[in-house]
Amino acid sequence: MWNRERWAYEWQQLREVDWRDLDVKEAGGWPSLLKALCGGLALLVALLVMEWWVIGERRAALVSAQQQESRLLSDYRRQAGEAVQLPKMREQLATLEDQMARLRAILPTDAEIPSLLDSISDAAVDNRLTIETIRLRPTVTQPHYVEQPLDIQVRGDFHQIARFVADMASLSRLVTQHDFALERADSNGDTLRLSMLARTYRDREDAP
């Protein structure tokens, strides 16, 4: 260990150094204090390089791993929440499929359209109406179904027409009624003419 006199001597040697004449090749002859300072500086530079090159790279990897951990944890929580709801969602899906099956059951197929026209004609005849027109319009293709419009025109009294409309609504196949027009068919006013647009629907899978 250096005593006070040695420190004073080394400090005096350091002060007398001509910094312009220093040569690294002659570092062995430098004052001890200067060599210690240079060694400390070299160690500091080495530590900074290690921090920047080794530790800095690992710190970046650690930050990336922490971010990935956060994302995975968020995904896990979301999927866990979905898993809890899965039985309920399956139940709802089964209910929707059952409703779709019941709906498809009341939609006529392409082959059943003629029999549906017969059912409408029978409803008119049963209510003692005079049929003027029952004819198909061109089909209209929608994204999930095919729409089949029908023009219907019949004559009779008010009660007969009302019963006919009710019978159409209770057909086994789905028929919706639109654009009603009711007018007198004779000068006495006892006979009325009903004109309407009816629509039935087919599943697109059944469409030719």
UniProtKB/TrEMBL annotation:
Keywords: Membrane, Transmembrane, Transmembrane helix. GO terms for biological process: type IV pilus assembly; type IV pilus-dependent motility. The chain crosses the membrane at residues 33-55. Pfam families: PilO. The keyword Nucleotide-binding does not apply. Gene3D superfamilies: 3.30.70.60. This is Type IV pilus assembly protein PilO. It comes from Vreelandella arcis.
